[in-house]
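Final report, closing paragraph on structural work. Over the funding period we assembled a curated collection of sequence-structure pairs, and we close with a single example.
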Amino acid sequence: MKHYLNIHTMLKGFFFITVLMLSLMSCGVTKEKLDKTVSDEVMQKIYEEIKTPYKYGIVFQHPDTTKMIDSPTIFRENDTWFMTYIIYDGQGYETWLALSADLLNWESKGKILSFTENTWDANQKAGYVALVDIDWGGDYSVEKYQGNYWMTYLGGSTIGYEAGTLKIGLANTTTLTKVHEWNTKNTPLLSPEDKDVRSFENKTIYKSLVFRDTEKHTGYPFIMYYNAKGEGDYESIGMAVSNDMKVWKRYGKNPVITRENGICGDAQITKIGDVYVMFYFGAFWKPGGFERFATSYDLINWTDWTGEDLVAPSEEYDKTYAHKPWVIKWDGVVYHFYNAVGSEGRVIALATSHDKRNGDK
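Its predicted structure, as stored:
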């Protein structure tokens, strides 16, 4: 009888430990789920870090001011800042390169993606440099992968402003800052005509951003965010992943950012501590075009900021749209470049965290 009681006691103890372990495991799962949402407190801290209340004004216009300028991508090499930007001239998009010593004064150097003939991307080549360092306050260098620098681009053959079926192309070069034509002899990476296309992207695909995920949150080293239009005729931000930059797989069933109305687009990623920040622009789900942000711990689940816009129309030169961000922190100052549309046409403008126009450092 004593032996039976000992066994019974041991079984009860085993049962208690098992229940306790399961309970702890359950708590772990719950915590993981909760951690996918960034708290209001952290969101506010991020906002205070990235906000740029001082509008410096227009910092760059294309030498031919009759042409529309768009979509800055900014990086640094050999103590010089560079900007790729795109130009629309009535036929379609081409991609150009500019440089600066101080982020305030920019000089156009020349064209790097041009129109071609009898290709799938003959009349649209709007490029965005890939693998720019995403660390907040980092060196903003561009990674070379497999001996090349890389650029994704909005490509298409139809003449007109973002006309026809647009796809994502891939360009590369061995020399990042030399003005020359990048190699574009690659098939499209993603298309609205693909078999695995999702409903929110089955009409056309616009701007893309490719960066390295050093922590491989998705299991893949490279992530792409891109905005696309599908059923409902609104633009959302979708996600794709890759092992080699050349073959891409759509990730998830739904967009990572959407309002199911108007536009959410032109994502840029930075990492502040353990929080990823996605800068993007919104348009037409409230008047005009304006700059927003969202945050994430894993690059998959995003918490959208519900407070005031980072940048919004307020001046004559950006009274129509203040949108399409590229944001960096350098020497303690946040520089928020954006596409301004207003009295001066379509130009690149700048807002900052310090009053640079009046000499504040």
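The CA atoms of residues 59 and 104 lie 6 Å apart. Confidence is low (pLDDT under 50) at residues 1-34. We thank the funder for supporting this effort.
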